[in-house]
From TrEMBL, chain A:
Inhibition and activation profile: The formation of the proteasomal ATPase ARC-20S proteasome complex, likely via the docking of the C-termini of ARC into the intersubunit pockets in the alpha-rings, may trigger opening of the gate for substrate entry. Interconversion between the open-gate and close-gate conformations leads to a dynamic regulation of the 20S proteasome proteolysis activity.
The organism of origin for this protein: Nonomuraea maritima
Gene expressing this chain: prcA
InterPro entries: Ntn_hydrolases_N, Proteasome_alpha-type, Proteasome_asu_bac, Proteasome_sua/b
Keyword Cytoplasm listed: yes
Protein name, per record: Proteasome subunit alpha
Any one GO cellular component localisation term in the record: cytoplasm
The family this protein is said to belong to: Belongs to the peptidase T1A family.
Pfam families in the cross-refs: Proteasome
Keyword hit for Cytoplasm: yes
GO molecular function: threonine-type endopeptidase activity
From TrEMBL, chain B:
Residue ranges annotated as propeptide in the record: 1-54
Pathway: Protein degradation; proteasomal Pup-dependent pathway
Primary location group: cytoplasm
Protein biosynthesis recorded as keyword: no
Record family assignment: Belongs to the peptidase T1B family.
Gene Ontology molecular function: threonine-type endopeptidase activity
Protein name: Proteasome subunit beta
Catalytic residues (positions): T55 (nucleophile)
SUPFAM superfamilies cross-referenced by the UniProt entry: N-terminal nucleophile aminohydrolases (Ntn hydrolases)
InterPro entries, sorted: Ntn_hydrolases_N, Proteasome_sua/b, Proteasome_suB-type, PSB_actinobac
Length: 266, 282
């Protein structure tokens, strides 16, 4: 006589799923990925030493994620299997970040539409090239949307605020120490305290390395690097805005737009 | 392979289903078994003599590490099929392997073994133990036994730096598997009997990497001297043995110029004493 019990329109279902996923992701801390002169830097505040948010996928490809650990861990393992299978079937140079991003996108998208609960994760797949022009940073959201980021990406809890601070400070071809300083400044709320060294997970994809470009920066190495960062973070943050305003760098495609919740007909 | 509709919801393919093992070979055997080096078909006739064979590999430990060296010759029967073949492979930052026997199968093993080690390292977030690596290689060799019986024999030699002991370790294998850990030095391949005899007399405990490289170059020369399938240094074409050194800093392959230096010094000495250095009698 009326709608069957429990009916909900597809639009409603998608919106609910998207809201659910966004809430889950927003609970976690942010992760920042940005280009520096020799490659790509990943920085994540992470109190756990065992459960990584940043990982190596293949020779030139790194992975960073926020959200539910068990869910993005599955994605990470699947990505490693994909990369190793392709590298073994063809050649090591035939494994690309784009291919991996597409695999993640189709998997995330399918889970978003087919399962009751979408994955509460956001993922960055970054690939370092021979030169800075060859670098690529892909950000993927829980619904399978792919954003081809330019220069930097932020995701997680306060993603928009972090991305805003990152955009203000980011410059092209920064040194590693400068890039780390920019990342930490972006991850820290104005007036807030920076996470201690022991609670930072930092890794790079360094194009100058042989074989495997991924390298975790830990312990004494990270402390030395932090000691090199500019002494007055306040002045560097003042100096940054005019330079980034003056440059005609294209705006990031990611953090500004609406998240696709399935309501769009396209 | 099953279509994604037959799989649990959300899984596009088996890449995302947890196999419960960190082994790449095991994953490959369920996901794409045709890519494994193993062959199921039985050959109508043994073809061992018709495909290129890789020959002599030598390895020896030195103070704080291990060195592996291999000649560059591949033979099919009495034909030299390649003069500059590479038979020593870096398998990860702290290990390497050399192959003797059927060259093509050996190359495949080296490629698979490298992915195997790296796969474990990425999934588990730690480096596999040296014993673990050696055991893994044994399983792969054992899987090739059926083909080995038909002439496609592959025997590897595995060397690794063990950070827990701060020393190099050497493992050898037979066609059925292994591993057999070797003290001090070992050699595989057709020239191995001569190389081992040479190493027995020239090996010195606690030698430097420099001295041990020279010892291995001497041993390879002695092998090439008496075994027709082992290639000596090719002075006219400037083809030198491949020498891989592993110590606490990781694996590095000596450059052609570096190896040429050792070879030239050895050849100069052999112009006077063709049989090489003479070990003291007592």
């Amino acid at each position: 006589m009326s709608m069957p019990f429990g009916y909900a329109s597809p639009e409603q279902i998608m919106r609910d799923k998207a809201d659910y996923a966004r809430k889950g992701i927003a609970r976690g801390r942010s992760v920042v990925v940005l280009q520096y002169v020799d490659g790509i830097l990943f920085v994540a505040p992470n109190p756990s030493r065992a459960l990584h948010k940043i990982s190596e996928i293949y020779d030139r490809i790194g992975f960073a994620a926020v959200g539910r650990y068990n869910e993005f861990e599955e994605l990470r393992l699947g990505g490693i299997r994909y990369a190793d299978i392709n590298g073994y079937t063809y050649d090591r140079s035939d494994v690309t970040g784009r291919g991996l991003a597409n695999l993640y996108a189709s998997n995330l998208g399918r889970i978003f539409t087919e399962s009751i609960k979408s994955l509460e994760v956001e993922v960055v797949v970054a690939e370092v090239g021979e030169t800075a022009d060859g670098d690529a940073i892909y950000r993927l959201t829980f619904d399978g949307s792919v954003f081809d980021e330019h220069g930097f990406a932020a995701m997680g809890g306060q993603a928009e605020a972090v991305a805003g601070r990152l955009k203000e400070r980011y410059r092209e071809s920064m040194s590693l120490a400068d890039a780390l300083e920019v990342a930490l400044a972006a991850l820290t709320e104005p007036g807030g305290e920076r996470p201690p060294v022991g609670q930072l997970e930092v890794a790079v994809l360094d194009r100058n390395r042989e074989h495997r470009k991924f390298l975790r920066l830990t312990g004494a190495r990270l402390e030395r690097l932090l000691a090199q960062t500019p002494a007055q973070p306040a002045s560097s943050s003042e100096a940054a805005p005019p330079s980034s305003g003056g440059k005609a760098t294209p705006p990031p495609t990611g953090p500004d737009g609406d998240v696709d919740d399935g309501s769009s007909p396209l | 392979m099953a279509s994604h509709r037959d799989l649990p919801v959300g899984l596009v393919n088996q890449l995302f289903s947890n196999t419960g093992s960190s082994s790449f070979t095991e994953f490959l055997s369920s996901y794409a078994p045709q890519l494994l080096p193993q062959r199921d078909e039985v050959l109508a006739t043994p073809i061992g003599d018709q495909v290129p064979h890789a020959t002599t590999i030598v390895a020896a430990t030195f103070a704080g590490g291990v060195i592996m060296a291999g000649d560059r010759r591949a033979t099919s029967g009495n034909i030299i099929s390649q003069r500059d073949v590479q038979k020593v492979f870096r398998t990860d930052d702290y290990s390497c392997m050399g192959i003797a026997g059927t060259a093509s199968t050996g190359l495949e093993f080296a490629r698979l073994f490298r992915v195997e080690l790296e796969h474990y390292e990425k999934l588990e977030g730690r480096t596999m133990s040296v014993a673990g690596k050696a055991n893994r290689l044994a399983t792969m060799i054992r899987g090739n036994l059926a083909m080995a019986m038909q002439g496609l024999v592959v025997v590897p030699l595995f060397a690794a730096y063990d950070p827990d002991r701060d020393e190099g370790r050497i493992f050898s294998y037979d066609v059925a598997g292994g591993p057999y850990e070797r003290e001090r030095f070992d050699a595989i391949g057709s020239g191995s009997i001569f190389a081992r005899g040479s190493l027995k007399k020239l090996y010195r405990d606690g030698a430097s990497a420099d001295d041990m490289t020279m010892t291995l170059i001497q041993a390879l020369y002695d092998a090439a001297d008496d075994d027709s399938a082992t290639g000596g240094p090719d002075v006219t074409r400037k083809i030198w043995p491949i020498v891989g050194v592993i110590d606490a800093d990781g694996f590095r392959c000596l450059t052609d110029e570096q190896v040429a230096g050792y070879v030239e010094r050895m050849l100069d000495a052999r112009m006077i004493s063709p049989d090489g250095p003479i070990a003291p009698l007592r």
